[in-house]
Amino acid sequence: MQDAGRLMADVRRRDAAAFEALYDGFGRLVYGIASRMLADTATAEDVTQSVFLTVWTRPEAFRGGNVGAWLARVTRNRCLDVLRSRAARPSAEMPVDVADETALDDAILARLDGARVRSALALLPVEQREPIEMGFFDGVTHDEIARRSGIPLGTIKTRIRTGLRRLREHLAGGAA
Amino acid sequence: MSSMQASHDELLDLVAVYALGALGAEEARIASMHLAVCTECRAEYDALRPAADAVAYAADDRLDLVDCPRIKREIMRAIRPPQRSAIFVASTVAALAAALVFAFIAVSAERKAAETDRTIAALVGPGARQYDVSAGEIVKSGDHIYLVMAKLAPLPAGRVYQAWTLAPGAKTMAPNVTFSPNSQGFVLVTLTEAAQNVGVVAVSVEPSGGSQAPTTKPLFVRPLT
Q1: Domain locations in chain A?
Q2: Contact residues on chain B for A158, CB-CB shorter than 8 A
Q3: How far is A167 from chain B (nearest CA, A)?
Q4: For residues B128 and B49, what is the distance between their CA atoms, to the nearest angstrom?
Q5: Of B23, B73, B136, B186, which has fewest CB within 10 angstroms of its CB?
Q6: What are the angstrom distances between the C-alpha of B189 and each of A159, B149, B193?
Q7: Nearest beta carbon to residue B52 from set A84, A97, A136
Q8: Which CATH class is domain A106-176?
């Protein structure tokens, strides 16, 4: 794929070809996140369309940094909105949206792909990998993770932190 | 837990969960406030946030490979509709906000489609101005004000959303249209008050048929400044 930051700049100039290239590069990522979080093909498609049409209509929302990480956060936040609307108890606590406007850039984000991340996650002990995946994809808070797993909250938090640090090391070191 | 009570190790753990996006509102607020003043925790957050973001990439292992090209065709059709029809040409220019795709997806009658195209053109025209609100956007374009709501929760039977306007210098909200979102939480509403007469827009939940004054706390109250 061409440089994603350059493609975003071209999308700002209403370049449909750049937009199409951006979809080719990140469509699977966006749809994959939505599919996994929502477990509903039709809604995942709706979210995917919503995310990319937002890119087309409001490209200025991207303020620099890593395009894929930004799209992933936008997608996750949209999915959290859907999960909230589905919640049987609207007052039940759900995670707050994480800011997606941060101009995040980092060496480990520069060459990510699904297989590489899955390999890196697989290197984590299951007690660290599970709360990380639940926290990211299931749209639940760490309290809910602790409740579901029957593990003390403090332990869950420490495992998430330790797991993220190890994940970073694996991704940075190419161990995956 | 407050930031004063927590040990610093506990706060570092909290910051990691914040990076993952798995905190509830109150603890996220604590973490965010702490990050603003603690360089050690900020460094931890900056290190862990990319790892948390990387987790997203693990999700493309369960895709039906047919879906992505089909979704792509639909998206590209939305931004580049056929050239031969005047109605669709209007849509091309419109650039199509994501919410509008959902709001109008079921519209099929030609007359309704033309009306829709005019609305979309107004929403994204050069003179349109957007105001962010919690549930979407307010758009001021020409004489009109539009609510493009993308995140409205479904309401129980007998309840509707109602828009309110406050004229410049006025002290009392005036009732405007009532509306309900579609199953995805999307709706596009054109307010009946002329834009020049509106300084503030609000939306609240009201009984079906609407109210003369808000009976519930508004979802948002947005000055158009």
Answers
A1: 1-105, 106-176
A2: 13
A3: 6
A4: 36
A5: B73
A6: 47, 8, 12
A7: A136
A8: mainly alpha
